[in-house]
């Protein structure tokens, strides 16, 4: 009787518990499905994370499979496809890795983030140039400066590497290559660069296209990056392809790559026909060369194609690294004002008298010449004119800068001689007193004013000669 009763109770409890057991089973199944779904999503993400930008790790161009790595490989291959050797293609990639980099193609200068929307010019991000820039900042993998030379703000071309490569290749074909800026000192033509087998040398030769300020170029980094790309992309298996090179660059690249302004075209030859006179100086509005704003050289490193335009202070009595001939000093002998005051004194004369003006910081020199001798300042350069540049322009500091115009080219660009510019001369960065350097300034550079004593009857002394 007790057993029958217990059986009935057990069956009753079983019927009562059944719905709860069913619900518990369904819950377990749903929970398991949820876990399986999460794992599936994670697995799906992991298989595609090597091609989708997912953070800082994806910006490393030397890690296979990252977005930056794929971008770098695409750029390298595009140069190999037009005939360059593997060493040349990876050499230039090593150079530009520390310029615009490969996390994206359209990076705006001054933007260091990793997302396209906040850093690419294609998304309307305006480049932020350095304080001394006189034009818009640069942009893109090649850091094209000003960025407006390539495409406007917000243009999709900024993330189109094929279009960007075509722009650079066309520029080089049309003459945008200056062999004298080659940082190996070898003055390699573009075709010689294309044939190179030494990737570290090739990296430095690319400066013939970039033509950046050497004072800010980390050669070791560029060479190290070039070697990494060469090893990563097996650069040694790609040799120079003469047929492809000729098909893409023809013979015009040979002419453009010499760095000789007389070889660019028949019209440029006529523009420079005065150069055969040797040593004649002050013939403004003549000649064309291929340099960028703020390209500068120590006196002993002046490229050959600029020597016929460069006034030699020694020709009018100024000694180099000696006080001899520096007859009008504004400061210690190692400042920009010292060179402009002494050279202007030696360079000009009227009735046997030389003009002396040593007052003011660099940005006030021109206005002080006007006050001392009369006439007016100008916004147009001329050979022998003293210049002032405003604070923060032309590489100057808070006191501005000054020097003397050496030559004005046909396109309005000009060459100046100066002291105390960066590490090229002067005492501020330890080069030394009573020295000078030369610098190229483009016509669109802002913040410059000029004064020529010619407007008050002064003439250039007959002893004035060029370096060449």
From TrEMBL:
Compositionally biased spans, kind Low complexity: 39-53, 255-269
Gene3D superfamilies in the record: 1.10.530.10, endopeptidase domain like (from Nostoc punctiforme) (3.90.1720.10)
| Region of interest: Disordered | 39-66, 251-280
Matching Pfam families: CHAP, Phage_lysozyme2
Domain Peptidase C51, first and last residues per copy: 311-453
In terms of superkingdom, the source organism counts as Bacteria
Q: Which named protein is this? A: Signal peptide
């Amino acid at each position: 009787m007790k057993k029958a009763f217990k059986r009935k109770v057990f069956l009753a409890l079983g019927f009562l518990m059944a719905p709860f057991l069913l619900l518990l089973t369904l819950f377990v199944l749903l929970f398991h499905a949820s876990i399986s779904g999460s794992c599936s999503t994670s697995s799906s993400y992991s298989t595609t994370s090597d091609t989708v930008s997912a953070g800082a790790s994806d910006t490393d161009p030397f890690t296979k499979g990252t977005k930056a790595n794929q971008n770098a490989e695409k750029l390298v291959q595009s140069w190999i496809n037009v005939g360059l050797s593997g060493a040349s293609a990876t050499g230039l990639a090593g150079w530009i890795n520390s310029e615009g980099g490969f996390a994206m193609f359209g990076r705006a200068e001054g933007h260091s983030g990793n997302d396209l929307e906040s850093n690419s010019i294609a998304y309307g991000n305006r480049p932020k140039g350095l304080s001394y820039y006189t034009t818009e900042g640069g942009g893109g993998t090649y850091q094209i400066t000003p960025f407006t030379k390539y495409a406007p703000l917000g243009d999709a071309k900024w993330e189109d590497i094929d279009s960007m490569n075509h722009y650079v290749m066309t520029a080089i074909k049309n003459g945008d290559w200056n062999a004298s800026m080659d940082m190996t000192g070898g003055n390699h033509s573009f075709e010689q660069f294309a044939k190179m087998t030494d990737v570290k040398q090739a990296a430095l030769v690319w400066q013939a296209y970039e033509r950046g300020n050497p004072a800010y170029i980390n050669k070791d980094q560029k060479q190290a990056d070039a070697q990494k790309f060469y090893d990563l992309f097996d650069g040694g298996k790609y040799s120079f392809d003469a047929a492809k090179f000729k098909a893409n660059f023809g013979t015009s690249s040979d002419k453009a790559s010499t760095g000789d302004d007389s070889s660019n075209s028949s019209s440029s030859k006529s523009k420079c026909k005065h150069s055969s006179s040797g040593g004649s100086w002050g013939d403004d509005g003549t000649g064309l060369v291929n340099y960028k704003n703020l390209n500068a050289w120590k006196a002993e490193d002046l490229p050959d194609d600029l020597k016929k335009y460069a006034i030699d202070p020694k020709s009018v009595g100024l000694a180099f690294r000696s006080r001899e001939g520096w007859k009008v000093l504004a400061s210690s002998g190692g400042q920009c004002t010292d060179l402009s005051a002494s050279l202007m004194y030696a360079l000009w004369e009227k009735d046997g008298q030389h003009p002396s003006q040593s007052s003011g910081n660099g940005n006030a020199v021109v206005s002080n010449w006007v006050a001392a001798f009369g006439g007016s300042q100008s916004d147009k350069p001329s050979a022998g004119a003293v210049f002032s540049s405003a604070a923060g322009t032309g590489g100057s500091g808070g006191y501005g800068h000054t020097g003397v115009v050496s030559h004005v080219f046909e396109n309005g660009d000009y060459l100046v001689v100066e002291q105390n510019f960066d590490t090229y001369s002067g005492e501020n960065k330890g080069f030394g007193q009573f020295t000078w350097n030369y610098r190229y300034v483009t016509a669109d550079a802002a913040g410059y004013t000029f004064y020529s004593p010619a407007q008050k009857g002064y003439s250039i002394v007959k002893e004035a000669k060029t370096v060449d």
